[in-house]
Write a structure and sequence with these properties.
Chain lengths: 114, 112
């Protein structure tokens, strides 16, 4: 059963703590993406990776970090430097980061920081 | 960079009626326009997409039209059903997925 998995579905953290969100895909896709979704807003790109061991900042990368050590995995760390971390986080992947192909999305992780 | 505006933000229709959601974009270099459906608590799912070399694409009850001159594209859902109720997002990208910009979303409610 191919697809993208994100875990956990809900995550609660105290302010000042770093937290890592998991994203795994078994679609053999080269490119992976992290988006943030806030109520009433479109998806905003945090980071993307076109290939293993390479990643680029999106529009709102400040306060976030990523790694891409394996093709299947693209974890996102929300650091204490992120001023408004409470949001719904979506991971996506696509066949080729160089061409406008369909992006497949995971089910998302809702992060609440208090 | 690309800027995508989507209207309306909410739309309520009676079951069986049609629904139309419109998006405008700013970058004339955009050449790929997907539409995503997001159900509550889930990730978006692609329902239809169109590339700049065609003006219209249809898939059963769903169609998308593109007007490159006016820089707008629309989603049309005919014979709406309650299971069509969801948030719909349009997007546009000029060169590659890395620059994909999303509209703010339209919450569609289909009343039985």
């Amino acid at each position: 059963d191919g697809g993208i998995t994100q875990s956990p579905k809900y995550l609660f953290r105290k302010e000042g703590q770093n937290v890592t969100l998991s994203c795994e895909q078994n679609l053999n896709h080269d490119a992976m993406y992290w988006y943030r979704q806030d109520p009433g807003q479109g998806l905003r790109l945090i980071y993307y990776s076109q290939i293993v061991n390479d990643f680029q900042k999106g529009d709102i990368a400040e306060g976030y970090s990523v790694s891409r050590e394996k093709k299947e995995s693209f974890p996102l760390t929300v650091t204490s430097a992120q001023k408004n971390p409470t949001a719904f986080y979506l991971c996506a992947s696509s066949t080729d980061g160089q061409k406008p192909y369909e992006q497949y999305f995971g089910p998302g992780t809702r992060l609440t920081v208090t | 960079g690309e800027n995508v505006e989507q209207h309306p933000s909410t739309l309520s229709v009676q079951e069986g009626d049609s629904a139309v959601i419109k998006c405008t974009y700013s970058d004339s270099a955009s050449n790929y326009f997907p539409w995503y459906k997001q159900e509550l608590g889930k990730g978006p799912q692609l329902i239809i997409d169109i590339r700049s070399n065609v003006g219209e694409k249809k898939d059963q009850r769903i169609a998308v039209t593109l007007n490159k001159t006016a820089k707008h594209f629309s989603l049309h859902i005919t014979e709406t059903q309650p299971e069509d109720s969801a948030v719909y997002f349009c997007a546009a990208t000029p060169y590659n997925n890395n620059d994909m910009r999303f509209g703010a979303g339209t919450r569609l409610t289909v009343k039985p």
